[in-house]
Write a structure and sequence with these properties.
With 317 residues, the protein is of the alpha/beta class. The chain folds into 2 domains: 12-215, Alpha-Beta Complex (Spore Coat Polysaccharide Biosynthesis Protein SpsA, Chain A); 222-312, no CATH class. Helix content is 45%, strand content 16%. Strands 1, 2, 3, 4, 5, 6, 7, 8 and 9 form a 9-stranded mixed sheet that branches. The longest helix has 22 residues, at 270-291.
Length: 317
């Protein structure tokens, strides 16, 4: 385990994968221009957008690399950018997040500079302005207002929650990420979770920076809830070491169900309780089918998945 000596001077590289995200990307990049700590560089990896994404990125001074859509890989694409980045700290965003204030970057990277053992820090995701009540509750359930630091030893108590993080808003010390050869390629998604698991195994720590705020949420349709959790099941099957090492998430799932029903009841959204229960059922079915995906007909897999290109490229077979 390498030592992360505290640095009086350090540099930050921001990395953003994009695809047809001109509108949301503009809000993100505009927010980055007013940060209390400015990044040394912004690297945009674009998958041949057909809208103005590239033009928007360049107008804010970002360095743009264009790749073929079929070449995009959640892990490999981010690793490619990490190797090319000049910064000591690598900050990852997805194109659809919006900074909540001008101290986002400062709060996100502060844990990395103040503790030699912390290798990754991730921020708090607030519901987007158009979030429905169910998606808003999910954000508040997953992202509390209390910062914390997690270690490998927490797995007995927290289970799979120990490795929870999100590359929608996360910062890594580059030297530590290089130790695990950056992000794993060939995954349906979950490159951030795998990296967190490997870093914890090396006795590094994960920081949750509750004061590093972005707006980010999704109003999923019913079929999208199923597809999202089908993909999670596929991911857990392919990366079975995560469950073996850190345990499952069943207790956390039960907490979510109880919390969701109580939240909607307390607010008087009685009509949404049935919708919430249906969504939970679809997630449960989707997840367990994903766990058995190798036994399912290959032609059905893209139809059940949110990441359809993963299967069409042949990666899933």
């Amino acid at each position: 385990m390498a030592t992360n000596a505290s640095k009086k001077s350090f540099s930050v590289s921001v990395i953003i994968p994009t695809l047809n995200g001109a509108k949301s990307l503009r809000e993100l990049l505009a927010g980055l221009t007013i940060q209390s700590i400015l990044p040394q560089e912004i690297l945009v990896i674009d998958s041949h957008s057909s809208d103005d994404t590239v033009e928007v990125a360049k107008s804010y001074g970002a360095q743009v690399t264009i790749i073929e859509r079929a070449a995009f890989d959640h892990g490999a694409t981010r690793s490619m950018a990490a190797r090319a980045a000049k910064g000591d700290i690598l900050v990852y965003f997805t194109q659809d997040v919006v900074p909540a204030d001008r101290r986002l970057l400062e709060h996100l990277i502060t844990p990395l500079m103040g503790n030699d053992a912390i290798a990754v820090s991730y921020g708090r995701q607030l519901p987007a302005f158009n979030a429905d009540e169910i998606s808003a509750h999910l954000r508040s359930f997953n992202y509390s207002d209390t910062s914390c630091v997690r270690t490998f030893g927490d797995r007995d108590m927290l289970g799979l929650e120990t490795v929870f993080t999100s590359n929608s808003c996360a910062a890594y010390l580059k030297e530590n990420l290089a130790e695990i050869n950056y992000f794993k390629s060939g995954l349906i998604f979950g490159e951030d979770t795998c990296a967190a698991g490997r870093l914890l195994e090396k006795k590094y720590k994960i920081a949750y920076a509750a004061d590093a705020l972005v707006y980010h949420s999704h109003n999923y349709e019913l079929h999208e809830e199923f597809c999202r959790y089908f993909d999670i099941g596929v991911f857990h099957t392919d990366e079975a070491w995560l469950l073996k090492t850190y345990g499952g998430a069943s207790s956390r799932g039960k907490q979510y169900v109880r919390s969701g029903i109580a939240h909607l009841y307390h607010l008087g959204f009685y009509g949404l309780i049935g919708d919430f229960v249906v969504r939970v059922a679809l997630k449960f079915i989707g997840y367990h089918l994903g766990r058995q995906y190798e036994k399912l007909p290959a032609r059905l897999l893209p139809k059940m998945s949110m990441n359809k290109s993963y299967w069409k490229s042949g990666k899933g077979f």
